[in-house]
């Protein structure tokens, strides 16, 4: 893949003042391939060469209502001239809290700005509430960029050791080794291994934090009963169950994964679709736990939390979700999944398509079903990336990283689906020739 001349010019300029030319390592696609965006319109984005793409990255997922959604812009403009940051409770925040708790079936919510801050805060709350220090997560799950998240996020499979005595691998340098002493990371969907660890170590564990589906591993789904098992065990051992809904919240259902999978966590974390791309996140949970957050009790703070622009964005989004908007994204995703299946069946490639309709993923693999991180890790990423390169070159842009699902928005149309499936079919033929 090669960026156009204008993108390249801007990217070279960016590289002089921004490490790698990007503000997140995940955005770097190569010196000659990293595109620079100009603008978005609904389901489309335009790069600096004015090339149009049907956008399935959607900014790593948040923009479920499409770029520049008028109802959100209008509500933000109403607020803009009043100022934004007061570090005081405001009316928008109260309304968003009322709507969010109703929609997600939670009691109390604190606002933050990013998913990273939300999961970090939720872990702190769980530790304070239980008086225990350890965090249990799952291999392949990503919970943001803080030190308690970046363990076994995408380790080499040979590096995680024997299932009964697994190793913890930090995602990179700069994460203190001592933090690993406070972490456990286990295979997703494996009740036996989880049960064994809990029997031995429950008294150390403050929380189990779980992405309800592995949204950072091509949407690997929870197997029947796995989330219920976590729920049951957390109740049995007095562990806080944190459902990290940063990717699934306000995307796979208005009530997120808790509604979709019928499982109630103690705390859920939200970000992405809560603001359709505006920076707003939330830690929402049961009164008995969240009610302990406060002066002299459990610490939580932040200058920008509940700033009025973010709250206005969130309010407009929640109103659109309440009106049933998400069904449109589901219908488009269903069409893509059916089309991929027809195309891939003809191609002879071995594959698994998985995930909810609004965030489906594809793994090229001989496995019949993908249920844990190693199934993604052992997949054929080379074929996936070649297909995606072809797609991006031809105006269809999912993320080129095979861990990212395709994010669907309510702005994608049936005509987009026909175009996208045509390009996808050509890409498969091109790569498989
Ligand atoms: C499940 C999950 N949790 C947390 C985060 C971190 O969110 P943010 O990038 O807003 O800090 C992400 C980001 O992709 C995520 O996918």
Largest sheet: 7 strands, mixed
CATH superfamily of the largest domain, please?
Type I PLP-dependent aspartate aminotransferase-like (Major domain)
State Rg. 21 Å
Total domain count: 2
Distance between the termini: 18 Å
Identify low-pLDDT runs: none
Strand content bin: 5-15%
Number of DSSP-assigned strands: 13
| Structural class by SSE content | alpha/beta
Indicate the mean pLDDT.
96
In words, what does this structure look like?
There is one protein chain. This protein has 433 residues and is α/β, with parallel strands linked by helices. It has two domains: 36-65 and 326-431, Aspartate Aminotransferase, domain 1 (Alpha-Beta Complex), CATH 3.90.1150; 70-322, Aspartate Aminotransferase, domain 2 (3-Layer(aba) Sandwich). The chain contains 14 helices and 13 strands. The chain has helices at residues 5-17, 70-80, 91-104, 115-130, 177-180, 191-201, 226-237, 256-261, 287-290, 308-322, 326-347, 373-377, 381-393, 414-431; strands at residues 37-41, 44-47, 52-55, 108-112, 134-138, 183-186, 205-210, 240-244, 267-270, 281-285, 351-354, 361-364, 396-397. The chain has a seven-stranded mixed β-sheet with strand order 4-10-9-8-7-5-6, sandwiched between helices. Helix 3 runs parallel beside helix 10 (308-322) and helix 11 packs parallel to helix 14 (414-431). The protein starts with a helix and ends with a helix. Bound molecules: pyridoxal-5'-phosphate. Pyridoxal-5'-phosphate binds at residues 60, 114-116, 119, 142-144, 211, 215-216, 244, 246-247, 271.
């Amino acid at each position: 893949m090669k960026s156009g001349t204008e993108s390249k010019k801007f990217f070279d300029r960016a590289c002089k003042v921004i490490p790698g030319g990007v503000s997140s390592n995940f955005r770097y696609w190569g010196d000659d391939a990293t595109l620079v965006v100009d603008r978005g319109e609904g389901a489309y984005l335009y790069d600096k060469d004015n090339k149009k793409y049907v956008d399935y990255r959607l900014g790593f997922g948040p923009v479920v209502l499409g770029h520049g959604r008028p109802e959100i812009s209008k509500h933000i403009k109403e607020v803009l001239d009043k100022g934004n940051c007061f570090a005081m409770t405001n009316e928008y925040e109260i309304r968003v809290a009322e709507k969010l708790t109703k929609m997600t079936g939670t009691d109390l919510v604190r606002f933050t700005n990013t998913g990273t801050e939300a999961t970090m805060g939720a872990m702190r709350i769980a530790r304070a509430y239980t008086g225990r220090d350890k965090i249990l997560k799952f291999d392949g799950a990503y919970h943001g960029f803080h030190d308690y998240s970046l363990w076994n996020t995408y380790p080499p499979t040979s590096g995680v050791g024997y299932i009964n005595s697994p190793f913890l691998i930090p995602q990179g340098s700069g994460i203190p080794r001592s933090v690993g002493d406070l972490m456990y990371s286990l295979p997703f969907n494996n009740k036996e291994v989880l049960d064994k660890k809990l029997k031995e170590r429950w008294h150390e564990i403050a929380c189990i934090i779980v992405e309800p589906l592995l949204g950072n591993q091509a949407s690997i789904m929870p197997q029947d009963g796995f989330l219920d098992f976590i729920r049951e065990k957390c109740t049995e051992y007095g562990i806080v169950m944190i459902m990290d809904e940063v990717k699934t919240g306000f995307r796979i259902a208005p009530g997120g994964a808790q509604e979709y999978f019928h499982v109630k966590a103690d705390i859920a974390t939200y970000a992405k679709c809560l603001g359709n791309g505006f920076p707003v996140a939330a830690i929402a949970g049961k009164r008995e736990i969240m009610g302990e957050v406060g002066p002299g009790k459990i610490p939580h703070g932040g200058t920008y939390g509940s700033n009025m622009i973010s709250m206005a964005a969130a309010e407009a989004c929640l109103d659109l979700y309440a009106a049933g908007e998400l069904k449109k994204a589901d219908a488009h995703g269903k069409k893509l999944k059916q089309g991929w299946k027809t195309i891939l069946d003809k191609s002879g490639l071995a594959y698994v398509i998985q995930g909810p309709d609004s965030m489906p993923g594809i793994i090229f693999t001989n496995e019949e079903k993908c249920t844990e991180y190693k199934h993604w890790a052992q997949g054929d990423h080379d074929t996936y990336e070649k297909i995606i390169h072809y797609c991006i070159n031809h105006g269809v842009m999912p993320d080129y990283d095979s861990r990212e699902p395709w994010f669907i928005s309510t702005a994608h149309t049936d005509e987009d689906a026909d175009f996208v499936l045509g390009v996808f079919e050509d890409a498969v033929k091109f790569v498989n020739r």
